[in-house]
Amino acid sequence: MDQILYEAKDGVAVITLNRPEAANAQTMALLDDLDAAWTRAAADQDVRVIVLKANGRHFSAGHDIKGGGPAPDKITLESIYEIESRRYLEYTLRWRNVPKPSIAAVQGKCIAGGLMLCWPCDLIVAAENAQFSDPVVHMGIGGVEYHGHTWELGPRKAKEILFTGRPVTAEEAEKVGMVNKVVPLEELESAAMELAGQIAKMHPFALRQAKRAVNQSLDVQGFYAAIQSVFDIHQTGHGNALSDGGYPIMVRLDEMKKQLKSN
């Protein structure tokens, strides 16, 4: 079964995460296929808007840390850095800067690495049951690799979410501006597609320039540099785990399991 589905129609490309049996946890292959789908949509002159959605109850449980391979023969900080810098940093920044508007449609749980799929999108439509969280402090890591927390939530709320690991509800996410719109679960896909259809009617060059203007304004404020520098801070968490003689992020899954079962 394909882990990523792709369809383009009426100026809208729909990219679908398709690992519902695993709550759309991200294998390396899934991320590679997802990047290929983003690249395909960016190159298609008929596509004006990109919608990212997910099949199943949950948008994404984050990285498949139970064995999402390929894994290096020996886990070292160098091997971790190489894998993550490509798939967790290079990919997400590329998706953010695709010169076409993008919309994420989020339902259920969006945990840790799931954030790095929806945060690069320009707009987020959330179902009423959506919950966003980054509980990786429980695992000895200071936050997910694409560290958009401060920009998405504001500094104090970002610290609260990281320090406690608690989820942010769709309603709360909308209040702080992380989510554009909250709709009933059964209306999620239609709401995202309706919004995409409205945007697709706009002039494509003007859309590109509008997106570039906002993104560059954030970059001037330090977004791009911050994302890259905090990625290196993230890697110190891996280094600390390795120096302790273990690799707790591979085995301490209790917090994520609790969140998935709590629905």
What is the structure about, briefly put?
It contains 10 helices and 9 strands. With 263 residues, it is of the alpha/beta class.
Lateral arrangement of strands in the main beta sheet:
1-2-3-4-6-9
Number of domains: 1
The coarse overall form would be globular
CATH topology type: 2-enoyl-CoA Hydratase, Chain A, domain 1
- Number of distinct helices: 10
Instruction: Tell me the structural class.
Output: alpha/beta
Q: Spans with pLDDT under 50 lasting ≥5 residues?
A: 247-256
- Rg measurement, Å: 18 Å
Please give the share of residues in helix. Answer: 40-55%
Organism: Actinomadura rugatobispora
Protein name: Enoyl-CoA hydratase
Pfam family, one: ECH_1
InterPro entries: ClpP/crotonase-like_dom_sf (IPR029045), Enoyl-CoA_hydra/iso (IPR001753)
